[in-house]
Predict the structure.
Amino acid sequence: MLPLAPNPRLELPGVRRFFSALVEEFLDGSCVFVVIPKHGASVLAAALQEPHFDAYDRYDIELSALAGREGPVVDGLYETFGLRREYPGEVVNAGTLAFHPNLGRRIAIIDATGSAQQELARWSMFVAEYSAIAKEVSTRNRTVFLTIVAPEDTDSLPPKDLNLRHRWWWGVLGRLDTMAYVDATVDRSDEDRDVIVEVARFDLDLADHLSRTWDGTILELREQLAAYVRTGGDRVRTGFHLTRHDRRPERPPAELLEAWSVGAVEWWQGLEQHVCCETASDELALPRCVWVAQVRVLFPRIELERRRIGQWVAAHASRVGPAWTGRDFESLEIGPLASLIRESPALRTPTSRRKLVDWLAGARNRLAHGKTIEAVDVRRGLGLIARDRADGDSARSSG
């Protein structure tokens, strides 16, 4: 395994890209509303504790502490930032805040996820006004606001403009991110890790769950998914339609917003539903995931072993059966190669290699016909490969 970072999720390429873009927007002096679903909240919270904003004086504020109080929102900001009015009784507003001589470069991270809708509406109006005025302030001295919003409250977002951005935790993780996370955190065989990637998809919590509990069999995989559903049943949504998109939309389609908010759909390698949703309506979904993973991992291994054994046969071409004379042994498919070995007793192929070739042919045939290979048979085949390679070709066909 790779060495673990304090939080390996923060090292994933997709997460790093998301926050790099966010920091660039702040350096440009933009205020940003981040829409975060349940499955992104913990990563966002952890990432916001990283030193992304060293250039700013930072404030973490619950929106209800500002917009839930009596009086204008800006009064709460003056108090939070420790700013004085120019004269007693001065009526302050977005403009006086933006141009206050002691404001300087600050960032306020506003958590609006638990706020009432009217509070968020008040805050959105203020930020829209502030960002329009603050563009006249140098970005080196401009305070910016990062507001974290729940998906169900997006109707209250202010319109975007040059200095006010929306960012959606949508398509942040792709297949490569899940692969990197599983490689860094899961101490299992390549075959098991690839199945975990294929099943977990964008749900890293599910990847953690399977790495701890799954024994490698499809039966146990079903049972562990059922156990996982019991701990987070709101992911299991059916009845929504996944429309094909050639490119990732900037945000989740409106009709999938609720499903996305609970982790039932995401943009992963295209628009994907959570595996628990898929298996709830399609009993073949799970074997299909396992098959895809096995094709990805085992097919290359089968091909490498086929070529290696073909080279061994080519080195002893004088001993092959008469029906195979003159053939290109290195390019033979594994099925014909198995037949050649059975029909060429002069090769003196040891029993262990004959078993390996038969396993390679059988495994490839199953996968080529869309069938999975049981975990115990995968382990047997990998053991045959390891044993055959350890014995070495020099000891083969001797005498």
